[in-house]
Amino acid sequence: GLVLSIIAIVFAMIPIINVISYFLAILAIIFGIVTLIRDSKKVMSIIVIILSICTFAVATNMNKKAVDVINKSVNENNKELNKISSDLNKSLGNATEDVLKNDVEVNLGTFEAKSLGYGMYDTKLEVTVKNKLNEKKSFSLHIEAVNKNGERIAEDYVSANDLGGGQSQKFKAFSLVDKDKIKELKNAEFKIIEASVF
């Protein structure tokens, strides 16, 4: 019983493998109780029982610590995977609302069209892009113009590359449009249908 209880308490200090120590401690307790009842070596039997009980406490504590370390590692990995997934969705344009809410501020101006004569027009929609983040990022915006019925008239893209944290830049969108659509574009509603950050 004494040998088993010593081996059990040594195994109890090794996480995962210490499952063996439970069985050894149970056997040691049984031998300790039998010896306590039958023999006069009561001190030795009590030592065996105490060591066996300590084995349960040590093994349980070591397993709890091991499980806590594993859980912490799994949680950190899950957070990292969620961040990678979120960043991927943002770069692919699958998280437009989140990008517009947290990462970039976009102000769409009023559509302007000046006649240059000979059927030519200078058109523009001023777009101001501001990086809300504290680090350098690039943004891609897909803007569409729709009429009162919600039908698309035209679309354009704006790319703001390498904007520093808090930095803003102005762009001209819809500078190349079909002259037949200019009248419609003056009354159109402009909105961002896709925003990505990378």
* Tally of contiguous helical segments: 5
The count of DSSP E runs of length 2 or more, i.e. the number of strands, is 6
> Which descriptor suits the 3D outline?
rod-shaped
Proportion of residues in β-strands: 25-35%
Uncertain regions spanning at least 5 consecutive residues = none
The helix-and-strand class reads alpha+beta
The CA-CA distance between the termini, in Å, is 66 Å
Q: Give the integer mean of the pLDDT values.
A: 91
Largest sheet descriptor:
3 strands, antiparallel
**Residue share in helix:** 40-55%
Describe the protein.
This protein is α+β, with helices and mostly antiparallel strands and 198 residues long. The chain is 48% helix and 32% strand. It contains five helices and six strands, in the order ααααβββββαβ. It has helices at residues 2-12, 19-38, 42-92, 96-103, 182-186, and strands at 104-117, 120-131, 137-146, 152-163, 168-173, 189-197. The strands form two sheets. The chain has a three-stranded antiparallel beta sheet. A three-stranded antiparallel beta sheet has the order 4-3-6. A hairpin with a 5-residue loop joins β3 (137-146) and β4 (152-163). The chain is rod-shaped, with a radius of gyration of 36 Å.
